[in-house]
């Protein structure tokens, strides 16, 4: 009799385990890390020669794939003498070429792509300039955009 009850309990237990329903579902997790970057430009400074390296332009941070940062440099092209109408023409150069801007890719971010900038004034104009303080302003504008399809 004990064997029959034990076999009966064992059968009931096995059937009970088999009758349990397991249900599985999944949860998807996503992390979105937005582009975060900073434009580094040459600092304000006093120049004392016709051609002066003023520093580097670069981007640090991280941008999303298929994005790039377009940087534009604008200026009036002249130093203006303070409290006077005299001007002194100059060029903004990168590697002896006029610099108006650049595009920095995802790979160039984090300071890996640097653009050395120079202010160049014709030596004769620099030497002929009247005494006084001359000032100019460079404006750098940076925009995150989709990678250009024309590359």
UniProtKB/TrEMBL annotation:
**Keyword Signal tagged:** yes
Q: Which UniProt keywords apply?
A: Signal
Give yes or no: UniProt keyword Signal. yes
Q: Which positions make up the signal peptide?
A: 1-24
Taxonomic superkingdom? Bacteria
Entry protein name: WxL domain-containing protein
Native organism is Carnobacterium divergens
